Amino acid sequence: MENCLDEIIKIEKKYNLYTDSIDGCNYWMYHRYHIITSMLIDAYGMNHPYESGNKTSIIAKYFSLFYKLLKGLTSYIQSIFVRRKSPILLLPSPRELSNQDKYCFMYTGFMLAPLHPILLSNHSIGDLITIPGDNVFPFLDVIAVLEKGIYWRKKKDEVKQEIVKRLRPALLEMLGVSGTTMNIDDECDLIAKTVFVHGIRVKYFTRLLQRIHPQLVVEVVYYNNTYMLINETANNMNIKTIELQHGLVDPLHVAYRFDSDNKIPQVPNYILSFSSFWNKSFLMPKVGTELYATGFPYYEEELKRNKRKDYATRKGRIMFVSGPTEGESLSRLAVECYELLPKDEFHILYRLHPDEKNVWREAYPWLVAYDDRIEVAEPGKRSIYELFAESEFLVGVYSTVLFEGIGYGLRTYVYKKGFYESMKPLVDANYAIIFENINELIELITLNKNDQGDRTRVEEIWKENAANNIIGFIMDLLEGVADS
């Protein structure tokens, strides 16, 4: 399926989609991740991620929108009087939210004290989370609200017709090579909304950056629409942008695969990766984006905080790592594993993905039936690193978690389902073994194959001294900006 993505990327280049624009908007860049990833999920026959386990009424949705609008406008008015400036603007990620909807700064906390960046407190009308602290710049992208309630139908329809005309041939070719289907009209409708509000949003973020006056923008998860728009605006203002690697990057990650000889303004200028091992999986534009291996500070600190337990504690503990696209098959496998392994020698723990927290009881009834025998770990209750420290085996399909287990010497097995090819770098480096069915897994576990007790190669995957590496890189970059 890696070849499928390669073919899709060739089609992107054939139709000049990276640079094609309507009314000044590179429309494809704001939707390519969602569109291509959906194609790949369908091509693999996988389940699409769960959005929510809660169904709300139309009245409740409108009430929620009104509440967010009121709260957002309050933040916007407050921002008018904010006059803070800093050389660094920090764009944190929703992934840094803890279970209580408070920021834990998983990816960026190490830089708050030494660098004193300004943080944006609201990145969209749908995620109005207040970040505590004196260095916060509250903002509201008002257009994100307006586009939900006002269509200006005639103009938008004209834009949509032009998008359909330009994009349909490329999408049809992509669907052909992936063997999937898609409602092209619906996708073009979403793109038309993006194009329609793009110019106004650029003006908004231009004013915002002028007021904060940063020399650098540091971000996590660049490929959400708001951050790409800020990158584009920063590029127009000659402000450098940096992304911190936040998770798995592999040959199937659409956001990090391009075939472009030119700079793409929505993509950051620098990407700071976990190590040079990961750099092999990036395929970035040949101009305008540079890769540097710096490490992952949070992981490094968790390794120190959650020491691996003695073998007697870990022996026989099997940790399954779920995910929103492969959770159904993996949870069934965990149940089968419980039935076939000796109950007095093995303990099975099933760790849910955050997107499954509110839906797993409805989505996986077979797992519910075993929840008195299989330990189901919900995100937010216990650190995944605590669970690593108590486990001997790790089983999953594709996840950054499978790489993180290396630091704990876990015997790691990759289930040949869905996006398992994403784990090829891990398997090729002899950190994990692929299995196809329950019988193969039972054999691997009982024979204790793939003993990863020696952790001397951790530095290969996770570069050490990460916090100092990143802070040093940023300081050097600031000095270069000051000298230019």
What does this structure look like?
- The chain is an alpha/beta fold and 484 residues long.
- Helix content is 44%, strand content 11%.
- It has a 7-stranded parallel sheet, sandwiched between helices. Strands 10-9-8-11-12-13 form a 6-stranded parallel sheet.
- The longest helix has 29 residues.
Which sequence of strands runs across the widest sheet?
3-2-1-4-5-6-7
The total count of strands amounts to 13
| N-to-C span | 45 Å
Q: How many distinct helices? A: 20
- Strand content range: 5-15%
Shape by Cα distribution:
globular
Q: What Rg, in angstroms, do the CA atoms define? A: 23 Å
Structural class: alpha/beta
| Percent in helix | 40-55%
Largest sheet: 7 strands, parallel
Which whole number gives the mean pLDDT? 85
Spans of 5+ residues with little confidence (pLDDT < 50)?
Answer: 123-132
SSE order and pairing:
Elements: H1 2-14, H2 32-44, H3 58-80, E1 88-91, H4 112-115, E2 118-120, E3 136-137, H5 142-149, H6 153-178, H7 184-212, E4 216-220, H8 225-236, E5 240-244, E6 270-273, H9 276-279, E7 290-293, H10 297-305, H11 311-314, E8 317-321, H12 327-340, E9 347-351, H13 360-363, H14 365-368, E10 375-377, H15 384-389, E11 393-396, H16 400-404, E12 411-415, H17 424-428, E13 432-435, H18 438-446, H19 458-461, H20 466-483
Parallel strand pairs: 1-2, 1-4, 2-3, 4-5, 5-6, 6-7, 8-9, 8-11, 9-10, 11-12, 12-13
